[in-house]
Amino acid sequence: METADKTAITVEATVNAPIEKVWESWTAPAHITQWCHASDDWHAPYADNDAQTGGKFKTTMAAKDGSFSFDFEGVYSNVVQYSLMEYGLGDGRKVKIEFVGDGDTTKVTETFDPEDQNPIEMQRGGWQAILDNFKKYTETGL
């Protein structure tokens, strides 16, 4: 899939939690399975994450009614603890996540190459919904 000529999509959220808590929630599989879904009729029944440069991750995202599931997976090209994650997906797309802590708040910014199957706004909305679930979970669920 060719994405070089496409404009990357950015979503962001400010989480009311210190950077250490945000990082733990983002990287620990036990936490990932609690927040990694775009709507309440989906869930993440499985997650594995080796959050280091060269490490791999995989999260299974599934409809709760069993009608559909897929694995979201890739390989980290650059990980700087409490600051940055960059990874490539199997289809060649790139993702960059920046974490900027400021005391009891942390800004999380995700920038990703779009895919070809769905409209840009749908992709932005889906990634933003997952990020919003992450924010809610990290602020209240840990």
TrEMBL record:
InterPro entries: ASHA1/2-like_C (IPR013538), START-like_dom_sf (IPR023393). Residues 16-138 form the Activator of Hsp90 ATPase homologue 1/2-like C-terminal domain. SUPFAM superfamilies: Bet v1-like. CDD domains: SRPBCC_CalC_Aha1-like_4. Belongs to the AHA1 family. This is Polyketide cyclase.
